[in-house]
Specification:
The complex is a heterodimer of chains A (about 110) and B (about 110). Chain A is about 0% helix and about 55% strand. Chain A is an all-beta fold and about 110 residues long. In chain A, the strands form 2 sheets. In chain A, strands 2, 4, 5, 9, 10 and 11 form a 6-stranded mixed beta sheet that branches. Chain A has a 5-stranded antiparallel beta sheet with strand order 1-3-8-7-6, with no helix packed on it. Chain A is globular. The relative contact order of chain A is 0.34. With about 110 residues, chain B is mainly β. In chain B, a hairpin with a 5-residue loop joins strand 4 and strand 5. The model of chain B has no long low-confidence stretch (mean pLDDT about 90). The chains are: A mainly beta (about 110), B mainly beta (about 110). The interface between A and B is medium-sized, with 21 and 25 residues.
Chain lengths: ~110, ~110
Amino acid sequence: KNQVEQSPQSLIILEGKNCTLQCNYTVSPFSNLRWYKQDTGRGPVSLTIMTFSENTKSNGRYTATLDADTKQSSLHITASQLSDSASYICVVSASSSASKIIFGSGTRLSIRP
Amino acid sequence: DTAVSQTPKYLVTQMGNDKSIKCEQNLGHDTMYWYKQDSKKFLKIMFSYNNKELIINETVPNRFSPKSPDKAHLNLHINSLELGDSAVYFCASSPDRGDYGYTFGSGTRLTVV
């Protein structure tokens, strides 16, 4: 069964600290993996997209890694800011069909001043 | 502003009623989607339209009927609302059916009482 599991479910860190969010998937065949940021009361916004051949991709203070062999991805946030408080959702695509796109339930990140 | 806009943002209604949610995108995208985000925060696809043509219809009760008058609009009509329909419904669009650079709307929180 195609699944995407994220950990931790929630995380609280102090402003300025770094953190890493995890995503494990069993989706097959693998097409691509995206990380989205969802602010409270808003729709998700894409941060990064990674295909099978890519190991790492950065978007400002966000760096995503992908290990296609172990089917794991991580999202590292550097020097966190209060505006980073949001849910971060890992999304894995099994093929070119939107019906084969599997969303994780997200990690709720709270940044404290 | 270029965006995906959906209305209303909040909808509270009684069981058995019929309601509609509207979605419009001015991004020039060909493909539009309806997603449901349940209480556990999982996003699940419901429908997808490409240039007014239905291309994805997941296992959704036939009380839900999407309508796309043109490629910039995708509305969702729900008949005989049930308590279990309470959720946040997101509209999204992408340039075409094979590109998953989704742009999401802000969501409609539906509460059935």
